[in-house]
Each structure stands twice: as C-alpha cells, then as structure tokens.
Amino acid sequence: MADQPGPYRHRFRAFVDNSVFGGVFDDEFADDSKRFFEQVKSGRFIVLVSEILLREILNAPDHIQDVLSSLPHEQLEAVAITPEAVALTEAYLQAGVVSHKWRDDAARIALATITKADILLSWNFRHIVNFDKIRAFNSVNLAQGYGLLDIRCPKEIQDEYSDQEDV
Q: What are phi and psi of 164, to 5 degrees?
C-alpha cells in the first residue's frame, strides 16, 4: 500500500492505557514504552484516545502529558464513552471480573472491545494484562456477542522491521 507511512502494510489500532504513557519514565518499562511510541510515530500504530485516558493524562505531570502531545495527530483516534460501552462495563462488573473500584479498567476493556481495537496495551498486570483477567474479560465479551480482545504489554509488541535478527 503506497499510501501507508513507513514500511508497514497495516496500521494497527491500539487502545493504550495511561500506564504506557507513564512507562516512558519508569526504569522497568521505559525502553519498551518508548519503542512503542516510536512505532506510533513511524505509522505502525494508531492510538485510540478515550475520555478516560484524557482525564488521567490531564491530571498527570507535564512530562507525561508531553508524551501524548508529541504523537502525530493523524496517529490518534478519539473514542467516546457510549451507552454500549457503559453496558459492557457493567457486564464485566456484574461478572466479578474486577470490582467497582476498578471501573475505569473495565471501561477501558469495554471501549477497546466495542471499537474493535486490534490490541489493548497496558502495564497494569493486576487488573488488565493478567491471564485470568484476560480470559474473564473475553468470556464476558463472547457472552455479550462481541469478539475477543487481544490484551498485551508493550514488551510483547515487536517491531518486525527492527535491527534484530530474524528468528
């Protein structure tokens, strides 16, 4: 596809939570978070930006806000909270996937599911990137008539065009 930026054939739509933005400044997660955002800038990913993310980023330190503002506008897609997303969030809570205290985490999964994101990226290993939680979220998705959601951490996103040797 000649109109696609960079060497990529498909631009993936990634729902990215605030932990990935903050991860740029965390010693443990910085390299992988930075690499992901470089892939966004090169055209491999479109970042789905929800109202939840915007609220969290606006309350974050300036250097974290700067990560979002550094991304090209054409690589961002706004995602609104809809009644459908609220209903799916409630289904996760009713199923006990997460407690009401973690409603925003459930809402992220719902928004990513409803918008048919290719992937949801997070460093939240307790409530999101967790084998049992992923299975539970996807079980509710299937019961509610939605598809499966691919949930990963940025470490699992490899740039196939990097300098690494082929395996």
A: -70, 150
